[in-house]
Amino acid sequence: MKANHIVLAILLTLINSVCYVMIKAGLAYTPPLLFGGLRGLIAGVALLGWAFLRSEPIIPSKTNWNGILLLAFVGGTLVFGAMFLSPGLAGAGIVSVLANSQALFTVVLATLILGERFSTGKSAALAFGLTGVILIAYPSLITPGTGNILGIGLALTVSAGTAIGNVIVKRMRVQEGLLAFAGWQFVLGSLPLLVASGLTENSYAVRWTTEFIGLLAFLALVQTSFVTAAWYWLLQKEEVGRLSLFFFFVPIFGLGISATVFNESIHPIEGIGIAIILVGIGMLIIEGSHKPAQEFTYCPFCNTAVPV
Predict the structure, then answer these.
(1) For labelling, which of 43, 102, 125, 269 has a CA lying 20 to 30 Å from the CA of 71?
(2) Cα(158)–Cα(117) distance, integer angstroms
(3) How far is Cα 256 from Cα 265, in angstroms, rounded to an integer?
């Protein structure tokens, strides 16, 4: 993998590491389905506006609409719905393990559907990563009241849905109009959540405080709009299975944030888990540094063809 791809992938996992913390904080101000729907709608509109400012087509080509509709359901409605309903139903340890199991789903699907090679580096990173995540979550896993079947099912739904979305985007190989492609995915995916919220939740229960607006803005504009556009761009350049393994960094960053911001100590077992994950990712990076032929792809950020 190219150095700038590695740096960007790590940056995206760093941003994702605060996702559930911010969702849990925001749920004190609004019902879950409405929160998820607003996040998706704002993110989608922002992406479409970004495309408009870049003079890119706002309406995707006809060939992309089937993929957009499928992604809207899987990556928008299903994932966001499960993501915003799961906090409080499963403990931190179980959520940490299951939320990062998307790498396992993605590697398997990429091998079966996309024909990606299940290399030694991927195998090692997957094994080391899952072992490390389990060790990091172990102190929470042995704590009573870690969750119920519904919470576990929702966490797995998020992982599986994200993995399916990754494979869909990679298989479609969208070369142009990537911003509009992602934008419509979130706009359309948010609508069922907003309808469901109107039917089952009290929409007037929202408390529009400065803190909630800040949380919603970060989740929609940074953690969704920017992260999704950048991630889809990376998917056009690297193997989806290889990229997904970088999400094993999420629990590491989560521990670091907790230690820095909340002065929480890191358990020795968690430290061992961190070391194991770093070893696995290091093996993946070393293997990926030996890349053959150079290719070019469209970059939505610079509006030109760039080396892969």
Answers:
(1) 125
(2) 25
(3) 10
CA 191/CA 44 separation, integer angstroms = 11
Of 240, 246, 268, 238, the residue nearest 255 (C-alpha) = 268
- DSSP-derived pairing of the beta strands 304-307 and 296-299: antiparallel
Give the dihedral sign, CA 26/215/154/151. Answer: negative
Q: What is the pLDDT of residues 218-274, one digit of tens each?
A: 999 999 999 999 988 888 888 887 788 887 777 778 777 766 765 666 778 878 887
Six token digits for residue 295: 């290719």
pLDDT in tens, 175-206: 677 889 999 999 999 999 999 999 998 767 78
- Measured in degrees and rounded to the nearest 5, phi and psi for residue 306 equal -130, 160
**Is residue 102's pLDDT more than 90?**
no
CA atoms within 13 Å, Cβ hemisphere of 14:
8
Output the CA torsion 57→78→85→142 (10° steps). -120
> CB under 8 Å to 273, separation ≥6 — which residues?
131, 132, 133, 134, 135, 136, 138, 251
Written as one string, the DSSP assignment of 71-91 is HIIIIIIIHHHHHHH-BTTB-
Domain span including residue 60: 3-307
Number of compact structural domains in the chain: 1
Q: How many CA atoms lie within 13 A of 280 on its CB side?
A: 27
- Residues sharing a CB contact under 8 Å with residue 68, sequence separation 6 or more, in sequence order: 60, 181, 184, 185, 188
Instruction: Decide: 246 and 307 in contact? Cβ < 8 Å.
Output: no
Distance CA 237, CA 137 (A): 32
Q: Which amino acid is at 55?
A: S
Distance CA 15, CA 11 (A): 6
For helices 92-99 and 249-261, the axis angle rounded to 10 degrees is 140
